[in-house]
Amino acid sequence: MKRILILGGTTEARQLAGKLAARTDLAITLSLAGRTESPAAQGVPTRVGGFGGADGLAAYLRETDVGLMIDATHPYAAKISANAAEAAHGAGVPIIALRRPGWELAEGDRWTLVDSVASAVTALGSAPRRVFLALGRQEVAAFEAAPQHHYLIRSVDPVEPRLAVPDATYLLVRGPFREADERALLLEHCIDVVVSKNSGGEATYGKIAAARALGIEVVMIRRPALPDVPSAETVEALAAMVDHFLVSHFLGPAAERGV
Ligand SMILES: NC(=O)c1ccc[n+]([C@@H]2O[C@H](COP(=O)([O-])OP(=O)(O)OC[C@H]3O[C@@H](n4cnc5c(N)ncnc54)[C@H](OP(=O)(O)O)[C@@H]3O)[C@@H](O)[C@H]2O)c1
Fold this sequence. Notes:
By secondary structure, the protein is α/β, with parallel strands linked by helices.
């Protein structure tokens, strides 16, 4: 039985775990940070909570005899990805990663690119605006520094405590979000600027397409740098990498050639 640790917290991690769980020669564990109060059912054995940095993760890899680690965390979860690369190196455990491609600027997009959430706050300017914050609940607190704006804040879990700003509306919803619904939402709340991460993928692209269609500015927070490890862009390609890895590491090159 080969042990595979998947670092998750994304739809792709759940999909990959589901695919690999069907195999009887693999023992899959999916790891979640524990940020979401009631995460979607994962369908495979799951562990929850931090490891205690790169050293803690390296110790976990050794103790549980992990043969392959898969980093399928969100593109903005830079700390855990850095820890994973360092721990893999330290524990001598192979690592592969899912690196979801970012969204590309399309004709009609009005993106203002910034490097951080703090820069996104500044980019909104001093005049009051109606802002849609489609960010994680950890990040929205930074917008208290600009209390002159009206905020529409959408999150999976409640933002607690609420923002110390006079004018904010909260929406509790879990994606995916369709473009037509996003357009209706932006119009309903008279939004004139969207703040977003460049998450990539289909599930949250609706707001970007809707903003383009309505000529609304998007303050786009650039992606953080991630460690350079062997990676694939889709769940299917990553599953193929896992197959290839298992054959070449556990069955030998002869099996890979089919002899
Ligand atoms: N950042 C986003 O925009 C975003 C969006 C959607 C989903 N997520 C998911 O939410 C989780 C947390 O994201 P983040 O941006 O807060 O991460 P982060 O800043 O990169 O990680 C902070 C710490 O959280 C723990 N951690 C993160 N992911 C973990 C995992 N899958 N399993 C166990 N521990 C984990 C680690 O703690 P220790 O150092 O103690 O090990 C890590 O050092 C990730 O699983 C990510 O895939 C993030």
